[in-house]
Amino acid sequence: MGKRPTYDLEYAAHGGVAYYAVSTAPPPPTFYQVPSRKPWVAWLVPLIFVVDVAMFVFTMYENNCPETFEEPKQCLFREQLGRFSFLPLQKNPLLGPTSITLQRLGGLQLQLVQHGESWRLLSCLWLHAGAVHLVANMLSLLFIGTRLEEEFGFLRIGPLYLISGFGGSLLSSLHLLVLTDKANVVSVGASGALFGLLGAMLSELITNWTIYTNKCSALSTLIATIALNLAVGFIPGVDNSAHIGGFLSGFLLGFILLIRPQYGYVSRKYLPPGYNKDKRKSKHKCYQYFFCAVALIVLTLGYTYGLLKLLKPATFEKINDRLMEKLQHFSKVNY
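The structure assignment produced for this chain is given below.
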Protein backbone atom coordinates (compact mmCIF):
# COMPACT_ATOMS: atom_id res chain seq x y z
CA MET A 1 0.00 0.00 0.00
CA GLY A 2 1.19 3.53 -0.81
CA LYS A 3 1.17 6.51 1.48
CA ARG A 4 -1.98 8.52 1.94
CA PRO A 5 -2.00 12.04 0.43
CA THR A 6 -1.81 15.01 2.77
CA TYR A 7 -5.10 16.93 3.23
CA ASP A 8 -6.04 20.43 4.35
CA LEU A 9 -9.33 20.61 6.32
CA GLU A 10 -11.45 23.56 5.31
CA TYR A 11 -14.83 24.58 6.65
CA ALA A 12 -17.35 25.89 4.16
CA ALA A 13 -19.14 29.04 5.16
CA HIS A 14 -22.30 28.12 3.32
CA GLY A 15 -24.33 25.52 5.23
CA GLY A 16 -21.47 24.61 7.54
CA VAL A 17 -20.44 21.75 5.27
CA ALA A 18 -16.92 20.45 5.83
CA TYR A 19 -14.90 19.24 2.89
CA TYR A 20 -11.31 18.13 2.17
CA ALA A 21 -8.96 19.68 -0.38
CA VAL A 22 -5.87 17.83 -1.54
CA SER A 23 -2.61 19.78 -1.00
CA THR A 24 -0.61 20.21 -4.20
CA ALA A 25 2.80 20.76 -2.47
CA PRO A 26 3.84 17.93 -0.16
CA PRO A 27 6.56 18.74 2.40
CA PRO A 28 10.13 17.70 1.56
CA PRO A 29 11.12 14.26 2.77
CA THR A 30 12.98 14.14 6.07
CA PHE A 31 15.41 11.48 4.79
CA TYR A 32 16.90 10.88 1.37
CA GLN A 33 19.05 7.91 0.45
CA VAL A 34 21.87 8.89 -1.92
CA PRO A 35 22.55 6.12 -4.45
CA SER A 36 25.68 4.21 -3.48
CA ARG A 37 28.61 4.30 -5.90
CA LYS A 38 29.52 1.06 -7.61
CA PRO A 39 33.13 -0.06 -7.12
CA TRP A 40 35.49 0.18 -10.06
CA VAL A 41 36.43 -2.97 -11.90
CA ALA A 42 40.12 -3.60 -11.21
CA TRP A 43 41.95 -4.35 -14.46
CA LEU A 44 45.14 -2.26 -14.27
CA VAL A 45 46.60 -4.03 -11.24
CA PRO A 46 46.03 -7.51 -12.77
CA LEU A 47 47.62 -6.19 -15.97
CA ILE A 48 50.69 -5.03 -14.04
CA PHE A 49 50.82 -8.46 -12.44
CA VAL A 50 50.78 -10.18 -15.85
CA VAL A 51 53.45 -7.84 -17.25
CA ASP A 52 55.76 -8.40 -14.28
CA VAL A 53 55.43 -12.18 -14.50
CA ALA A 54 55.96 -12.10 -18.28
CA MET A 55 59.05 -9.91 -17.86
CA PHE A 56 60.51 -12.34 -15.34
CA VAL A 57 59.95 -15.27 -17.70
CA PHE A 58 61.60 -13.29 -20.50
CA THR A 59 64.48 -12.39 -18.18
CA MET A 60 65.11 -16.03 -17.39
CA TYR A 61 64.92 -16.86 -21.09
CA GLU A 62 67.55 -14.23 -21.86
CA ASN A 63 69.68 -15.31 -18.90
CA ASN A 64 69.97 -18.91 -20.24
CA CYS A 65 71.96 -20.23 -17.28
CA PRO A 66 73.11 -23.52 -18.94
CA GLU A 67 74.77 -21.57 -21.77
CA THR A 68 76.13 -18.51 -19.96
CA PHE A 69 77.17 -19.79 -16.52
CA GLU A 70 80.72 -21.16 -16.19
CA GLU A 71 79.48 -24.37 -14.56
CA PRO A 72 76.20 -25.32 -16.27
CA LYS A 73 75.65 -28.40 -14.13
CA GLN A 74 75.20 -26.17 -11.06
CA CYS A 75 72.17 -24.37 -12.55
CA LEU A 76 69.12 -25.18 -10.44
CA PHE A 77 66.42 -27.29 -12.13
CA ARG A 78 68.48 -27.42 -15.30
CA GLU A 79 66.91 -30.66 -16.53
CA GLN A 80 63.35 -29.53 -15.85
CA LEU A 81 63.53 -25.88 -16.94
CA GLY A 82 66.31 -25.88 -19.53
CA ARG A 83 67.36 -22.34 -20.39
CA PHE A 84 64.87 -21.00 -17.81
CA SER A 85 66.83 -22.62 -14.94
CA PHE A 86 68.10 -20.53 -12.01
CA LEU A 87 71.57 -19.60 -10.92
CA PRO A 88 73.07 -21.55 -7.99
CA LEU A 89 71.94 -20.30 -4.58
CA GLN A 90 75.41 -19.01 -3.72
CA LYS A 91 75.20 -16.74 -6.77
CA ASN A 92 71.57 -15.68 -6.40
CA PRO A 93 69.67 -16.86 -3.30
CA LEU A 94 66.41 -15.43 -4.70
CA LEU A 95 66.28 -17.97 -7.56
CA GLY A 96 66.90 -15.66 -10.47
CA PRO A 97 69.26 -14.45 -13.21
CA THR A 98 72.65 -12.72 -13.15
CA SER A 99 73.04 -9.01 -12.49
CA ILE A 100 74.48 -8.66 -16.01
CA THR A 101 71.20 -9.87 -17.51
CA LEU A 102 69.19 -7.51 -15.31
CA GLN A 103 71.42 -4.61 -16.31
CA ARG A 104 71.07 -5.41 -19.99
CA LEU A 105 67.26 -5.51 -19.76
CA GLY A 106 66.90 -2.18 -17.94
CA GLY A 107 68.05 -2.56 -14.35
CA LEU A 108 68.89 0.59 -12.42
CA GLN A 109 72.60 1.39 -12.30
CA LEU A 110 73.90 4.78 -11.21
CA GLN A 111 76.63 5.24 -13.80
CA LEU A 112 74.34 4.40 -16.69
CA VAL A 113 71.65 6.78 -15.44
CA GLN A 114 74.16 9.62 -15.17
CA HIS A 115 75.36 8.91 -18.70
CA GLY A 116 71.96 9.58 -20.25
CA GLU A 117 69.97 6.40 -19.59
CA SER A 118 67.49 8.04 -17.23
CA TRP A 119 64.74 5.74 -18.55
CA ARG A 120 66.15 3.11 -16.20
CA LEU A 121 64.48 4.96 -13.32
CA LEU A 122 61.20 3.47 -14.61
CA SER A 123 62.28 0.35 -16.49
CA CYS A 124 63.69 -1.22 -13.32
CA LEU A 125 60.15 -1.41 -11.89
CA TRP A 126 59.26 -4.26 -14.23
CA LEU A 127 62.25 -6.48 -13.41
CA HIS A 128 62.84 -8.75 -10.41
CA ALA A 129 65.97 -10.31 -8.99
CA GLY A 130 64.42 -13.76 -8.56
CA ALA A 131 61.32 -15.88 -8.17
CA VAL A 132 61.20 -15.23 -4.41
CA HIS A 133 61.41 -11.48 -5.03
CA LEU A 134 58.68 -11.70 -7.67
CA VAL A 135 56.24 -13.73 -5.54
CA ALA A 136 56.62 -11.43 -2.53
CA ASN A 137 56.00 -8.30 -4.59
CA MET A 138 53.11 -9.73 -6.58
CA LEU A 139 51.25 -10.86 -3.46
CA SER A 140 51.56 -7.33 -2.07
CA LEU A 141 50.46 -5.86 -5.39
CA LEU A 142 47.30 -7.96 -5.59
CA PHE A 143 46.43 -7.49 -1.93
CA ILE A 144 46.93 -3.71 -1.77
CA GLY A 145 46.61 -2.56 -5.36
CA THR A 146 43.35 -4.33 -6.18
CA ARG A 147 41.58 -2.81 -3.18
CA LEU A 148 42.80 0.70 -4.07
CA GLU A 149 41.85 0.39 -7.74
CA GLU A 150 38.34 -0.81 -6.87
CA GLU A 151 37.97 2.18 -4.57
CA PHE A 152 39.55 4.96 -6.67
CA GLY A 153 39.83 3.68 -10.24
CA PHE A 154 42.74 3.17 -12.61
CA LEU A 155 43.07 6.88 -13.50
CA ARG A 156 44.33 7.56 -9.98
CA ILE A 157 46.10 4.34 -9.11
CA GLY A 158 48.07 4.17 -12.38
CA PRO A 159 49.88 7.52 -11.91
CA LEU A 160 50.24 6.80 -8.20
CA TYR A 161 52.01 3.50 -8.92
CA LEU A 162 54.37 4.88 -11.57
CA ILE A 163 55.29 8.15 -9.84
CA SER A 164 55.91 6.36 -6.54
CA GLY A 165 58.13 3.84 -8.27
CA PHE A 166 60.00 6.67 -9.94
CA GLY A 167 60.49 8.34 -6.56
CA GLY A 168 61.86 5.11 -5.11
CA SER A 169 64.34 4.75 -7.98
CA LEU A 170 65.38 8.39 -7.63
CA LEU A 171 66.16 8.13 -3.91
CA SER A 172 67.93 4.82 -4.49
CA SER A 173 70.20 6.48 -7.06
CA LEU A 174 70.87 9.44 -4.76
CA HIS A 175 71.80 7.02 -2.01
CA LEU A 176 74.28 5.30 -4.32
CA LEU A 177 75.90 8.69 -4.95
CA VAL A 178 77.00 8.65 -1.33
CA LEU A 179 78.03 4.98 -1.34
CA THR A 180 80.78 5.17 -3.93
CA ASP A 181 81.75 1.53 -3.31
CA LYS A 182 78.32 0.42 -4.55
CA ALA A 183 78.13 2.56 -7.68
CA ASN A 184 77.99 -0.56 -9.88
CA VAL A 185 75.11 -2.19 -8.00
CA VAL A 186 72.07 -3.07 -10.15
CA SER A 187 68.71 -2.38 -8.49
CA VAL A 188 65.42 -3.87 -9.71
CA GLY A 189 61.93 -4.49 -8.43
CA ALA A 190 58.51 -2.90 -7.90
CA SER A 191 59.03 -2.45 -4.17
CA GLY A 192 59.23 1.34 -4.40
CA ALA A 193 55.88 1.50 -6.20
CA LEU A 194 54.30 -0.92 -3.71
CA PHE A 195 55.52 1.14 -0.76
CA GLY A 196 54.00 4.12 -2.55
CA LEU A 197 50.62 2.39 -2.39
CA LEU A 198 51.11 1.86 1.36
CA GLY A 199 52.05 5.50 1.84
CA ALA A 200 49.01 6.60 -0.14
CA MET A 201 46.76 4.47 2.05
CA LEU A 202 48.07 6.31 5.11
CA SER A 203 47.60 9.80 3.67
CA GLU A 204 44.19 8.82 2.30
CA LEU A 205 43.12 7.82 5.80
CA ILE A 206 44.37 11.15 7.18
CA THR A 207 42.87 13.45 4.56
CA ASN A 208 39.53 11.58 4.44
CA TRP A 209 39.34 11.25 8.22
CA THR A 210 35.67 12.32 8.52
CA ILE A 211 34.24 9.43 6.49
CA TYR A 212 35.87 6.62 8.48
CA THR A 213 34.56 4.71 11.48
CA ASN A 214 36.97 3.00 13.91
CA LYS A 215 39.60 5.53 12.91
CA CYS A 216 42.17 4.71 15.59
CA SER A 217 41.97 0.98 14.87
CA ALA A 218 42.45 1.51 11.14
CA LEU A 219 45.34 3.92 11.71
CA SER A 220 47.18 1.67 14.16
CA THR A 221 46.79 -1.38 11.89
CA LEU A 222 48.09 0.52 8.88
CA ILE A 223 51.07 1.97 10.76
CA ALA A 224 51.99 -1.49 12.08
CA THR A 225 51.85 -2.91 8.53
CA ILE A 226 54.05 -0.11 7.18
CA ALA A 227 56.57 -0.47 10.02
CA LEU A 228 56.81 -4.23 9.45
CA ASN A 229 57.44 -3.81 5.73
CA LEU A 230 60.05 -1.10 6.30
CA ALA A 231 61.81 -3.33 8.83
CA VAL A 232 62.23 -5.99 6.14
CA GLY A 233 64.28 -3.45 4.21
CA PHE A 234 67.10 -3.67 6.74
CA ILE A 235 67.90 -7.22 5.62
CA PRO A 236 71.32 -7.23 3.86
CA GLY A 237 70.98 -6.89 0.10
CA VAL A 238 67.60 -5.12 0.22
CA ASP A 239 67.49 -1.57 -1.16
CA ASN A 240 65.62 0.18 1.66
CA SER A 241 66.26 3.62 0.15
CA ALA A 242 63.94 2.68 -2.72
CA HIS A 243 61.31 1.62 -0.19
CA ILE A 244 61.56 4.92 1.68
CA GLY A 245 61.55 7.00 -1.51
CA GLY A 246 58.49 5.18 -2.82
CA PHE A 247 56.70 5.46 0.52
CA LEU A 248 57.31 9.22 0.82
CA SER A 249 56.22 9.79 -2.79
CA GLY A 250 53.06 7.76 -2.32
CA PHE A 251 52.31 9.48 0.99
CA LEU A 252 52.42 12.90 -0.68
CA LEU A 253 50.52 11.71 -3.76
CA GLY A 254 47.73 10.34 -1.57
CA PHE A 255 46.87 13.88 -0.44
CA ILE A 256 46.63 14.91 -4.11
CA LEU A 257 45.07 11.94 -5.91
CA LEU A 258 42.98 10.17 -3.25
CA ILE A 259 41.06 13.09 -1.77
CA ARG A 260 37.35 12.32 -1.29
CA PRO A 261 34.27 14.41 -0.32
CA GLN A 262 33.74 14.93 3.38
CA TYR A 263 31.10 13.08 5.38
CA GLY A 264 27.61 14.45 4.77
CA TYR A 265 28.31 15.98 1.37
CA VAL A 266 25.56 15.46 -1.23
CA SER A 267 26.00 16.27 -4.90
CA ARG A 268 23.52 18.73 -6.43
CA LYS A 269 22.08 16.09 -8.75
CA TYR A 270 21.06 13.98 -5.76
CA LEU A 271 19.38 16.77 -3.77
CA PRO A 272 15.67 16.01 -3.15
CA PRO A 273 12.95 18.56 -4.04
CA GLY A 274 12.48 21.22 -1.38
CA TYR A 275 15.96 20.72 0.12
CA ASN A 276 17.54 23.90 1.46
CA LYS A 277 20.66 24.25 -0.69
CA ASP A 278 22.16 26.85 1.64
CA LYS A 279 22.60 24.14 4.29
CA ARG A 280 24.43 21.80 1.94
CA LYS A 281 27.96 20.93 3.11
CA SER A 282 30.98 21.88 1.02
CA LYS A 283 32.59 19.07 -0.94
CA HIS A 284 35.91 19.14 0.92
CA LYS A 285 37.23 20.38 4.22
CA CYS A 286 39.69 23.28 4.30
CA TYR A 287 42.46 21.08 5.69
CA GLN A 288 42.09 18.76 2.68
CA TYR A 289 42.90 21.63 0.31
CA PHE A 290 45.80 22.64 2.56
CA PHE A 291 47.29 19.13 2.60
CA CYS A 292 46.88 18.87 -1.16
CA ALA A 293 48.69 22.16 -1.84
CA VAL A 294 51.54 21.44 0.58
CA ALA A 295 52.02 17.91 -0.79
CA LEU A 296 52.14 19.18 -4.38
CA ILE A 297 54.75 21.81 -3.52
CA VAL A 298 56.93 19.42 -1.51
CA LEU A 299 56.72 16.69 -4.16
CA THR A 300 57.63 19.09 -6.99
CA LEU A 301 60.58 20.59 -5.09
CA GLY A 302 61.82 17.19 -3.98
CA TYR A 303 61.76 15.68 -7.46
CA THR A 304 63.38 18.77 -9.00
CA TYR A 305 66.15 18.74 -6.38
CA GLY A 306 66.78 15.03 -6.82
CA LEU A 307 66.87 15.11 -10.61
CA LEU A 308 69.21 18.09 -10.72
CA LYS A 309 71.59 16.45 -8.27
CA LEU A 310 71.48 13.13 -10.11
CA LEU A 311 71.46 14.10 -13.77
CA LYS A 312 73.13 17.53 -13.73
CA PRO A 313 75.57 17.56 -10.83
CA ALA A 314 77.47 20.56 -12.26
CA THR A 315 74.27 22.61 -12.55
CA PHE A 316 73.24 21.52 -9.09
CA GLU A 317 76.58 22.61 -7.64
CA LYS A 318 76.25 26.05 -9.24
CA ILE A 319 72.76 26.51 -7.83
CA ASN A 320 73.93 25.31 -4.44
CA ASP A 321 76.91 27.69 -4.46
CA ARG A 322 74.67 30.64 -5.33
CA LEU A 323 72.28 29.79 -2.53
CA MET A 324 75.17 29.53 -0.07
CA GLU A 325 76.51 32.93 -1.21
CA LYS A 326 73.13 34.54 -0.65
CA LEU A 327 72.79 32.93 2.77
CA GLN A 328 76.25 34.18 3.74
CA HIS A 329 75.38 37.64 2.46
CA PHE A 330 72.18 37.81 4.49
CA SER A 331 73.95 36.49 7.57
CA LYS A 332 76.39 39.45 7.42
CA VAL A 333 73.66 42.06 7.13
CA ASN A 334 73.04 43.91 10.39
CA TYR A 335 69.50 44.94 11.23
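Interim note for the steering committee: Residues 7 and 23 are 6 Å apart (CA to CA). The chain has 13 helices and two strands.
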